[in-house]
Structures are given as C-alpha cells and as structure tokens.
Amino acid sequence: MSPKAGVQAAAGFDVERIRRDFPILSERAYGRPLVYLDNAATAQKPRAVIDALVRYYTTENANVHRGVHLLSERATGAYEDARRTIQGFLNASSTREVIFTRGATESINLVAQTWGRANVGAGDEIVISALEHHSNIVPWQMLAEEKRARLRVAPIDDRGQVILEEYEKLLGPRTKVVALAYVSNALGTVSPVHRMIEMAHAHGAVTVIDGAQAAPHLRTDVQALECDFFAFSGHKLFGPTGIGVLYGKASLLDAMPPWQGGGDMIRSVTFEKTLYNDLPYKFEAGTPHIAGAVGLGVAIDYVNGVGLEEIAAYEHELLEYATERLMRIPGLRLVGAAELKAAVLSFVLDGVHPHDVATVLDRRGIAIRAGHHCAQPVMDRFGVPATSRASLAFYNTKEEIDALAAGIEAVKEIFH
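Below the sequence we write its predicted structure tokens.
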C-alpha cells in the first residue's frame, strides 16, 4: 500500500493536462512513444521550470548578495524568494534554517563533516538502517573511521521494513547520530520516521533524515517530524540538477563550524582571523547555483499548484494498479512489499538479468533503472545482485503501466 492507502481513487486528476506541462514526455525513443519510469533516479521538468531557467539567464543573470546594480538585485531577490518558498514547503521556522547545497548527498556530507566531526568521538555510535542509499552510508562510515566511532545498522524484515524492536535495541547512551531514509529509493518503503525520531531523541541523539525520495511524494513538515536535519534534492522534485537543500534547526546550525571556506560565507577576513557570516550564508561558500535555486522554487510552486495530497492519491492508485498488473506475470517477483510504499516497483524476472530486462524495454521506448540503485546492502539482504526498478510520478498513466507489462512479456519471449 502507498502512504495514501484508503484514499478514494483520484478520479478528478487530469493526468493528460499534467503531461502537457512536461515537454520531454512527447519525445519518442527508438520510434516509440517515450514511457519514462525512472523517476526515482531523476524526475522530468515542467515547462514552468524550463522557462524560469531561460528567463533567469535572459533577464536576471548576475551574482547574488554582492552587487548594488539592477541585475544583481534581481538575481538576489529571485534566489532569496526561492529560499522562502522552500521554507514554506518544509514548514521550517525560518529561512535561516534553509541551506542551499548541490543535493541530498552534499547535505548529508555537510552534517557529517561539521556537526559530526565536532560532536562524535571514539567509542560513540552512529545508527542507520539497512534501507539506506549509499549517500547515507558512506559519509557516516568515513566519519566513524576518522573518529574511531561505531556504525550500527538496524535490520529490515522480508517485506523491506525496518524492524523497530531491533532498531530500538541499537539506541543507547553512546548513540550520537541517527540517520534514516524517509523513503527507500530501492524498494519504495516509507519508514515510520516520526516514531523513529522520537525514539532517537529519547536517547539524546541528533537525527538526520534523507528526504530525497520523500519530498516528491509526501507532505513534509519538519517541525511536526521534529527532525534535527532534513536533506533533499531538487532534481527528484521536478527541479534542476545540481541543487539541493539542507534543513537544520537553527540552534544546531549556529553551533556548527563552516564546512567550506570562501566568499559570501564570511563577515570579514584578515590574515590573522576570519569572522563567519550569519545563517544561512555561513554554509554557502562561493557563487551558488543561483539558477538552480530559482528553478527549484518554481518546481515547488508547480507541485503545490497541483497539490501534494492530490499527487499522493493519484500515485497510490497508479502504484496499486501497477502492482496488481506486474504480479500477474509468471516468473516475476516484486522485491519489497512494505505496508506503506511510495511509487516504486523493484522486481526480478526468473532467468533474466535485470540489465537485460532494462535493455529490451529501452528498445521499446520504456525507461526503467536496473542495478543495485546505490543500495547494495538492500540487494544483499534479498539475495539478489540487482533488480529492475520502475518508479512512478504523477505524470505517468495506467496505459504506460500496460506498456511496461507488455514489454516484460516480450522480454520473457526473447529469453525463454
């Protein structure tokens, strides 16, 4: 089931109107209509975002915060307007808590290398789950090795859900950081992060939530979650690549040292001493991805205009249709059957390598992902080297699911 299990079918959702807003969806691949089902890797961009990027570079392009001329003032206004949009999207208490980064990966590394280095010591413990993307594993491994701390991993069950009883057993007086994926990119599992955050806070741990896969599908309220940090990427939220966000509680960000040094993150510099800038600029060294931030703000406006609740309801309907349709194919096994799922279907086909499945589907104009999805421990848990993954967005249709199923049947005919 999806996060919106029990919601009425999204009968009024006009997916054809939505599709017209995404120019790339009218493209053809190998002479066939493009069926794009690789949204967990990156989502497509609506015309509004593309136009915003063109408009920025055509009428506003200048560096931010440094100039008094008209173009710099326009660029700065657009950049900071985007920050305010993101504050509202996350329900952060202040724009000071919204840091622009290159993506969720950089956001997590920022926390590990600033808060982590300052607060984690020898013998301390960092807790993650077995669902994590490599971006929420490797930074903590690096920190643990540097600080001689211990990385502990909460196991998952056969349905791909964190076993809460085992997770709770890992928490203790030495737990300094708990870093968790809200939604698994490999399986679509939606973890009960609110409860897991409460449990971590009961032991005094700081919580870091990888929201890269959650932001496009779920309403996120960081104050309601009470997480300490929350990371997400713009390109999965229908915005540009190379832009992301780190939300952090102001009290923590204020106490953290800067990560990178350079322009804009300083108040004053002499050869003897540097005074750092206020939040959020203390963590935004150098010229930022201004156009990316502007584009992300427009992408969020677009999603808000459609309605996250409406998106979730439609994607739930689509996921249930796709699950039922694929499960009717003999020899196909879905990997991950969590009670709460986002719109991801990870599967294996008897006797056919996932890369071969993806290659045959590609020649039929169907784009899916094949591999370990930067989540090799998840693959190890289920005893497979890789899966084929179809990941859905609100511009996908039941007809595209039917095309996927027909393509898988064609794969079977070729290899059997």
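The chain has 14 helices and 17 strands.
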